[in-house]
Design brief:
375 residues, Rossmann fold, 2 domains, four-stranded antiparallel β-sheet, 12 strands, elongated
Length: 375
């Protein structure tokens, strides 16, 4: 109670509004004593006071005596000063809020938005792809990093199909994540932070810690994380990440394919290029093809849309071995992991998105599946 009282007393906006109310009250009371006639009846003095203070000047009541007119001059100057202060105070509140938003210091009021934690040379490529893949849907993307204000403004001016917001700070901090309204977000992406202000010798550790923090704040939120080293895969899986992208997965294949299978890398680049008209896309499956053979759906897409159906996918909640093991890497856990690896059993390396590429012609389409096509 004392804290709220102190806030009310020291709040500039409340001070100005209170001053206007006090001047109106005192001005009306004094005018009622100085002036005879209709102007002094009922609430007329207070109406006259507020109209005079705001310089509206309806003219329905005017002081008739010299004393009343001299007092009216005082009320006019007091009203002009307080009204100017009120306007300036309201303007300063909005300007200060805008400045804080530009600096990434204001809590965002968003929902179903995407959050990108960290920044490096691939960050802009990710934003490019999100914009190119957005189609007609408008996305809101929140960047959490330590980029400068000029760089953030450049990014905001570059992208017009998505709305960019900025939150400055460490994305492993609950306070910073809350400022990005994490609990109302749709998806969080985490990439290694390699800005000038934050170059870590082991960025994967920060990615794992951020995943743990995010899942602790909102267990159901979808988290996609980028790792540099495969050896950290088990650790981030224990943090309950939804999807993992490894830096060495794609690059190694592309280098080898340029030597062994020329033409394949070029085709892959086209299919993965968000600006290409022939990149991979996901589409809904018409309800009439549920529980029907894959071959029927393939023929439908080819005949109706001139698309090539390459497979189907579904999102599942899988419980992996890594989630069952404890988080402290005890001797028992190490023994279980070693025996499972010796038996060729993966430790939660499976994606929670189940994909079936080029199934047999008689494969039956399930109700929860969607199609992957090439336009």
């Amino acid at each position: 109670m004392r804290r709220w009282l102190r806030y009310i007393i020291h709040n500039r906006f409340i001070q100005v509004v209170g001053g206007i109310f006090i001047v109106m009250l005192i001005g009306g009371l004094i005018l009622g004593l100085l002036e005879p006639g209709e102007i002094a009846e009922g609430g007329n003095p207070f109406w006259w006071a507020i109209v005079t203070m705001t310089t509206v000047g309806y003219g329905d009541f005017t002081p008739a005596t010299i004393t009343g007119r001299l007092f009216a001059v005082v009320v006019m100057f007091a009203g002009i000063s307080l009204t100017a202060l009120l306007t300036a105070t309201i303007s300063s509140i909005f300007v200060a809020r805008k400045i804080r938003e530009d600096k990434g210091l204001e809590k965002l009021d968003l929902s179903e938005h995407i959050i990108l934690c960290g920044w490096n040379k691939t960050g802009e490529q990710i934003v490019d792809s999100i914009q190119n893949l957005a189609g007609s849907k408008h996305h809101q993307l929140v960047l959490i990093n330590d980029l400068g204000e000029d760089e953030i403004n450049r990014l905001k001016s570059r992208y017009n199909k998505i709305t960019l917001y900025f939150v400055a700070g460490d994305f492993t901090s609950e306070i910073i994540l809350d400022r990005a309204n994490l609990k109302e977000a749709d998806t969080v992406m985490i990439i290694p932070n390699q800005t000038n202000e934050d170059v870590s010798s082991n960025p994967d550790e920060k990615t794992i810690f951020a995943t743990l923090t995010i899942k602790a704040m909102s267990a159901n939120i979808r988290v996609v994380a980028y790792l540099n080293n495969r050896e950290n895969l088990t650790h981030i899986k224990r943090a309950n990440v939804d999807e993992v992208v490894l830096s060495d997965d794609f690059g190694a294949f592309m280098v080898a394919a340029h030597v062994m299978d020329p033409g394949i890398p070029q085709a892959v680049n086209t299919l993965l290029d968000s600006k290409s008209s022939s990149h991979f896309k996901r589409v809904d499956i018409p309800s009439k093809f549920i529980n029907k053979p894959f071959n029927d759906l393939f023929a439908h897409f080819r005949e109706e849309n001139d698309w090539i159906l390459i497979g189907v996918y579904s999102e599942e909640e899988n419980l992996g071995i890594g989630e069952i093991l404890s988080a402290d890497s005890s001797a028992l856990d190490a023994f279980i992991e070693r025996k499972l690896k010796e038996g060729g059993i993966s430790l939660q390396e499976e994606s929670r998105v189940s994909v079936v590429i080029n199934p047999g012609a008689d494969y039956l389409i399930n109700p929860n599946e969607r199609a992957i096509i090439i336009p």
